[in-house]
Amino acid sequence: MPEPGAEPYDAIFINLKEKVEIENLSIDALLQLSHKNSWWAIYPINNRLSKQFWSLIVKDGRISITFDRKIMGVAFIRPSFHKMHYFV
Known about the structure:
3 helices; 5 strands; alpha/beta
């Protein structure tokens, strides 16, 4: 994972099949790498550990829009949007 304080990313793709990554991953760390218009694609979201992490993202008040595609999740930070969760 890049160092905190690095240039913010427009999009972040996270492969949670890598167990090393999921243990070092947090919403706060992702937010430090993001800006207000960033979005995240998270795959997979259907195993035990990744499902827990995805649930935290969906419930987090700093994340506006989330799309749940059964095995993949997409999250938008955009504070100007109302908080919504969609199943696609």
